Every structure is written in C-alpha cells, then in structure tokens.
C-alpha cells in the first residue's frame, strides 16, 4: 500500500492535470486501504477475508460551475480521461454561487499535529482467529448463554490525502483493530441476544478477548426473562452505548446543510441554552489515537478542539465553506470529504463531559422508570425534533435496576429531552462519539 507521501503526490498530480486541462480550480482526494478479518462460530473457523484498494476523487471548478468524478482505475490513460471528463462536465453544470474551495487564508500551514493514529502491529490471520475464538469461548462460558452468532477480529490500515489548487497538500495514515462477539441466551421464544465490541487505533489498547466475550455473554444473559414495560410518563435513563445517538441528533441539527435548508429543530437556537446549565459538549479532533481524530478537515483547514455546547449554551454551527458562505460566516473546520461529491460536515471525537454524580445516585430517587440499552427504528423528525423509538432495557424500581423489558416505545421531543437531561460521572472514551449515562425526565413510555 502507498505511503502518505506517495498518496499526497497522487492527489497533487491529478490537481495539476486538471488545471492544465482548463479548470479554474480543483481539489482531489486519494484514499488507499488494506484490511484483514477472521470470523469464527461455535469454535470453528467461518470466514477469512483480505482486501486492498485505492480510489481517487477529483472536483473541478470552471467559474461557479463544478463537477466531481472518481475512479479506482489509476492507470495514466484512465486518469487522463477522468480529467478531461471532469472539466467537460463542469462546463455544462449549473452555476452555484456558494461553491468553491476553502478560503486560501484559512488553510492549514506548517506541520500537521501528530496524533499517533497508526501502529506497525499487524496481526496475521492465525492471531486474528485466536483472538476471535477466545472472545467467543469467553462469551459461551457465561452461565445462561445457549448459542452463538459468532465472533470476529479485524485489522485495517488506511491512507488519506487531500490536495487543492490553491496550495494545500497533506496526507495521514491510520490503523484500526476491532474485536467483537455476539451470543444468544435463553431458549425458545425467550431467546435474547447481545454483543461486546471494541475498536482501537493501536492493537495494544484493545480490550482482551476474554473481557469482550464476557461482556457479550453477561449482557445477553441479563436479558433473559424479559417482560413488558409499564406505560406512562417517567424518567428514562440511557446507557452510554445508546445515549451517543442523542449527540448524533444534535450534530445533525447544527450541520451547515440543515441550517441553510432550514430543516433543523435547532434552527433559531444559536447562542441560546439547549442543555441544562453546567453541561458541555466538546469536539476534539486532536485526541491522541482517537477513533475520529484527524490533523485537518476535508477542505484542508486546520482543526482544533471546539466547545459545541458550553454551560448549556449552543456556541457554534458545523460549517464547511459552502454553507459558511451562504450564512455569511466562517467555516469551522468540520468539513468532511468522501471520494465522490462535494464536502459535507462531520464531527471528530465528539463527547459530552461527565457530570458529577455516579449512576447509582442518578437513579436512586426513581420510583418507576426505564434503563434503555437498545434502541430500534429511526423515528426522529429532524425538522420538529419529535422523537419516538422502539427500545429494550431494564425496569428501574425504587432506585435500582429490575427485570429486563422489551418491545416498548419511548417518545418525546428532542428540545425537551435535551433540556431535561442529567449526565452521570461515568464517561469513558470508547467510541468516536461518547457520552456518560444520561437521565432524561418526563419521557412517554408505551409498553406492550
């Protein structure tokens, strides 16, 4: 696989060719990746996979007209045709007064930050198989587990480069190590499944197969005997693995596209309180070996930690250059770029800071409530904030977790949910988006 310097040279070269072919401006991305994965089920090898690939995407501008093309054929002949086609397409495209490269004055200059995103520890297939087998064995050893959906281990390496015609060119490399197990507990119509999963940039940081497997087994076994939830208005507590979805709804509502199209339930909320006082939401692209860390954004702008919500107040939109121009603002360094198409926006390592109370204290005054561990369906209206999703979890009775419950619905409005939110003190950085356990008052629960 190509090195970051070689990937950067590929992106720079295609931009130079586009300018020579008549483009007024251009940018290009080059992405290469390699991965290996192994899965096992019931102790037997189920699948072994290996993949490698490289893709190049080019965006060209002729005046205010633009076009994007991409290819995985990197031969000189194919690239020559690609450039000519892109410029011809741009000349026929409709004008877009907001389109264009990022402001040259805002580009990242100098060395990009070192984020420790790649290691050299590449496990071979036997090592991956051993890790997956150990994880599954640990899960199946948990009392109550009756079957397995399998376990898998994977490794990947990627290189991503960006070059623009107004002076930016850089690239970076990242690795990933993942391990998962999924098992079934119970029998007949009472069977329940759950999983354990961990992903890291460095193999040395990955949880042990035994810990991941035991987590999967314990989660599945705890759900056996699930019954129906009560109905009514009550507190709902979100386990961190499902609570992260609330930050996804937040980031979607403050994205440049949602704001410019006026399709956000937070449209008039900039500079106002959307969360309780004392609650902070941070986006940190510089977190060392973070799963979504990056040294620059998808347009070549520098990135840095940003307070999205500070003391409950919404501080910023998430803007690429096009949405920033439309709103008369500056881009925020949140542009994302795929191989094809124009930039969008994304967060990096997004998290809600921990609160001040342990989980036990968070729930101790709940006479009747629900602790949610799984969300089902996509019943969220991004324009109004209306929220209704299927769920599973555990009943909270007199301040303690009780019996498992399934097939119920939780409903509310995201504005009210955000304002009625309390974070616990158990934040752990385990995913690209992280939250502590969250309590939300006054949600509507509809049991089966």
UniProtKB/TrEMBL annotation:
Extract the InterPro entries matched here. Metalloprtase-TldD/E_C, Metalloprtase-TldD/E_cen_dom, Metalloprtase-TldD/E_N, PmbA, TldD/PmbA_N, TldD/PmbA_sf
UniProt domain Metalloprotease TldD/E central: residue ranges? 121-223
- Tell me the ranges covered by the Metalloprotease TldD/E C-terminal domain, including all copies: 231-447
SUPFAM superfamilies in the cross-refs: Putative modulator of DNA gyrase, PmbA/TldD (SSF111283)
Residue limits of the Metalloprotease TldD/E N-terminal domain? 26-90
What's the family? Belongs to the peptidase U62 family.
Any idea what this protein is called?
Answer: TldD/PmbA family protein
Q: Report the source organism.
A: Sphingomonas citri
């Amino acid at each position: 696989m190509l090195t970051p310097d070689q990937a950067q040279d590929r992106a720079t070269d295609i931009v130079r060719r586009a300018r020579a072919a008549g483009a007024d401006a251009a940018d290009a991305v080059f992405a290469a990746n390699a991965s290996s994965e192994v899965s096992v089920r019931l102790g037997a090898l189920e699948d072994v996979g290996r993949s490698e690939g490289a893709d190049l995407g080019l965006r060209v501008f002729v005046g205010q007209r633009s076009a994007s093309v991409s290819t995985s054929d990197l031969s000189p002949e194919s690239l020559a045709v690609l450039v000519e086609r892109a410029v011809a397409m741009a000349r026929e495209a409709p004008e877009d007064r907001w389109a264009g490269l990022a402001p040259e004055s805002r580009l990242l200059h100098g060395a990009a930050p070192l984020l420790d995103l790649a290691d050299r520890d590449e496990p071979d297939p036997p090592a991956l198989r051993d890790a997956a087998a150990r994880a599954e064995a640990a899960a199946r050893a948990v009392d109550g587990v009756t079957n397995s959906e399998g376990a898998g281990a994977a490794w990947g390496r990627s290189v991503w480069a960006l070059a623009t015609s107004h002076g930016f060119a850089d690239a970076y490399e990242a690795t990933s190590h993942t391990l998962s197990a999924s098992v079934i507990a119970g029998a007949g119509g009472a069977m329940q499944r759950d999983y354990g999963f961990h992903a890291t940039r460095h193999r040395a940081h990955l949880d042990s197969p035994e810990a991941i497997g035991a987590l999967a087994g314990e989660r599945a076994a705890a759900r056996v005997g699930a019954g129906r939830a009560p109905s009514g208005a009550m507190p709902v507590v979100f386990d961190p693995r499902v609570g992260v979805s609330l930050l996804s709804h937040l980031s979607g509502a403050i994205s440049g596209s949602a704001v410019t199209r006026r399709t956000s339930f937070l449209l008039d909320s900039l500079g106002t309180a959307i969360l309780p006082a004392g609650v902070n939401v941070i986006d940190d692209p510089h977190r060392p070996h973070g799963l979504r860390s990056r040294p620059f954004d998808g347009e070549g702008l520098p990135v840095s930690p940003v307070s999205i919500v500070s003391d409950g107040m919404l501080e910023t939109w998430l803007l690429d250059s096009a949405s920033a121009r439309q709103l008369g603002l500056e881009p925020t360094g949140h542009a994302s770029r795929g191989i094809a198409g124009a930039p969008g926006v994304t967060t990096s390592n997004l998290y809600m800071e921990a609160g001040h109370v342990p989980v036990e204290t968070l729930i101790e005054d709940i006479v009747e409530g629900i602790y949610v561990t799984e969300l089902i369906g996509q019943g969220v209206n991004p324009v109004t904030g209306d929220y209704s999703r299927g769920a599973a979890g555990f009943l909270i009775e007199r301040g303690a977790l009780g019996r498992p419950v399934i097939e119920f619905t939780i409903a509310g409005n995201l504005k009210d949910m955000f304002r009625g939110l309390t974070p616990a003190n158990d934040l752990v950085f385990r995913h690209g988006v992280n939250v502590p356990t969250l309590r939300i008052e006054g949600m509507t629960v509809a049991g089966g």
